[in-house]
Amino acid sequence: MVREIVHDPMFLQRKSEDATQADLQTAQDLLDTLRANFDRCVGMAANMIGVAKRIIAINDNGKYLVMFNPEIISKFGEFETEEGCLSLDGERKTVRYKTIKVKYFNENFKQIKRSFSDFTAQIIQHEIDHCNGILI
Q: Superfamily assignment of 9-131 in CATH?
């Protein structure tokens, strides 16, 4: 189900709770909402649809990926950039890393460790910030 985008910074600044298998419907709603906004959004966190759970969904070059309880375990290549957000107006400066390694659970709750680079890494970092209550 496509959900409305949350714009309330007080809600978005709350740290999200760990997700469980009971949150699979939230993940589906997150994917549906991301797909519905494909023309202006490449990633979303569950708090952006009003659910304070550690779930993110990204559009990785046309392939959608959902991560439960994502955690960056290593990072390399710091750089400064500007980013926008569907939940906020305008663009803001932030620091990101060119390459990251992420530990997360897939939709079957199998733990995955995977490296990401470039724009995909940037998207994931932005969405993990949302899970941590960090707004750019």
A: Peptide deformylase (3.90.45.10)
